[in-house]
Write a structure and sequence with these properties.
Elements (H helix, E strand, L loop, with lengths): L5 E3 L4 H10 L3 E3 L5 H8 L5 E4 L9 E3 L4 E4 L4 H6 L3 H4 L1 H8 L4 H6 L2 H7 L7 H6 L3 E6 L2 E6 H4 E3 L2 E2 L6 E7 L6 E8 L10 E10 L2 E10 L6 E2 L1 H5 L8 H14 L10 H25 L3
Parallel strand pairs: 1-3, 2-3
Antiparallel strand pairs: 4-5, 5-10, 6-7, 6-10, 8-9, 11-12, 12-13, 13-14
Helix pairs in contact: 11-12
The structure holds flavin-adenine dinucleotide (FAD).
């Protein structure tokens, strides 16, 4: 049984932001992190602000230059959006292996990002797409990169009076491959052992942009920037891919836990980064044929 808690139910974003500014309260979206946590604590919960009626935070808009995703967009919404496979292929691959369908129907993008877990599956794809977040408070809005938002284990740059209202990114251009792979202990409903997202852009046979984002192998999801730098400026060969995979494994700071040892995770990063970069090079290169 859930312990008792107070629920505020604003009907507009303004009302929600005022409540957040004036009461000690926590935003409640799908509740798939918050409610299990409340149950596990077993003591009377605090005050939650339901985002359920804030329809303006829900949905995905596409333009040629930008994809704008509302904070309350669910994992199922990602799977049902017909333009998403080209606007964010890695995000679609991720949504397919995220929990089961009941959780996917409730779990939101904002909840996944704001919880700040190192195993948050939404985050590596969005980091690999250079996503930006817009946060709102009663004092106004600010936009920052997802990379700058993630500070440490379950620690983000969100202030207590702020709501994440949207996530945006530029859709991949021709010659860009964007891939994700989740390694778990089983195919469905498993916490990620290692999550890898890569984005590679190829122009005239050379790699002009590389992003490698890793989940579950450090206190927070992060970009392996040295590995990215090893790839830019030339074609991706077995040697450059191997160097980048090695650098990504070295940048990881995994822990031993019930799901896998740190050594296994580091090894998996090496193998998966190599595999995804090889596939990305072939996919991006073939778009110019
Ligand atoms: C059975 C099960 C399976 C799961 N499988 C996976 C999985 O495969 N991969 C994975 O990554 N996660 C998984 N999860 C975890 C969870 O479903 C996700 O993290 C989900 O995206 C959280 O979203 P939510 O809307 O339910 O967030 P909530 O639980 O409502 O909130 C989570 C946190 O985000 C904050 N928050 C929510 N919305 C906002 C906002 N707009 N602005 C500011 N703060 C906000 C809340 O205050 C809270 O701190 C699973 C959970 C369960 C119970």
């Amino acid at each position: 049984m859930l312990p008792p808690f107070e629920l505020l139910e604003p009907h507009s974003l303004d009302q929600a932001l005022k409540m957040l500014a004036t009461s000690e309260s926590v935003p409640l979206a799908g509740g798939t992190n918050l409610l299990p946590d409340l149950r596990a604590r077993g003591e009377a919960g605090g005050r939650f602000i339901s985002l359920a009626a804030l329809d303006q935070l829900h949905g995905i808009e596409h333009s040629d230059s930008r994809v704008l995703m509302g904070a309350r967009t669910t994992l199922s919404d990602i799977l049902h959006d017909p333009l998403m496979p080209t606007a964010a292929p890695s995000l679609v691959s991720m949504a397919k292996v995220f929990a089961g369908s009941m959780v996917r129907n409730a779990a939101t993008v904002a909840g996944n990002i704001c919880y700040g877990s190192p195993s948050a599956d939404v985050v590596p794809p969005l980091l690999s797409l250079d996503a930006e977040l817009t946060l709102a408070s009663a004092a106004g809005e600010r936009t920052l990169s997802l990379n700058d938002f993630l500070l440490d284990y379950k620690k983000t740059a969100r202030r207590p009076d702020e709501l994440l209202i949207s996530v945006s990114w530029a859709p991949p251009t021709t010659g860009t491959a964007n891939l994700f792979y989740k390694l778990g202990r089983r195919r469905g409903d498993a916490i990620t052992v290692v999550g890898v997202a890569v984005t590679i852009t190829i122009e005239k046979g050379n790699c002009t942009k590389a992003r490698i984002a890793l989940g579950s192998v450090a206190p927070t999801v992060f970009r392996a920037q040295e590995a990215e730098e090893a790839l830019v400026g030339g074609p991706l060969t077995a040697t450059t891919i191997g160097t980048a995979a090695q650098a990504a494994a070295q940048a990881s700071r995994p822990i031993d836990d019930i799901r896998a040892s740190a050594d296994y995770r580091r090894h998996a990063v090496h193998m998966l980064v190599r595999r995804l970069l090889t596939e990305a090079w072939q996919t991006a290169g073939s778009q110019h044929d």
